[in-house]
Amino acid sequence: MPVKEMPVEIFDLDQLRSYTLGDRDLEDEVFGLFEAGALEYLAALEAALGAGGEAWRRAAHGFKGSAANLGARALAAELAAAEPLATADTAARAAALHAIRHLFEHSRAVFRSRP
What we know:
By secondary structure, this protein is mostly helical. It has helices spanning 13-20, 24-47, 53-70, 73-82, 90-112.
């Protein structure tokens, strides 16, 4: 019988709160820094879309670490899967970038609707 995979949590707010000790202003500041960096990583992935290579791998790897540290688990998992696509075809990277953007927006929405 196949093992059913558990869905990856979109955003672990408890992880973020462990860094900020529940200070909502600090949460906003930390997320703002993540968001600014994420937009830079997205631009780098877009720029490396056609060629792939080391530029794609570096951007995916850096973005993955940033997302994982913040608690954006699903985004970090998608970026981990995208990292080896540095040597894949452009269509595979384009599909990954689409998914990455979607999960980034979903992570933003979860953060902004936090209780």
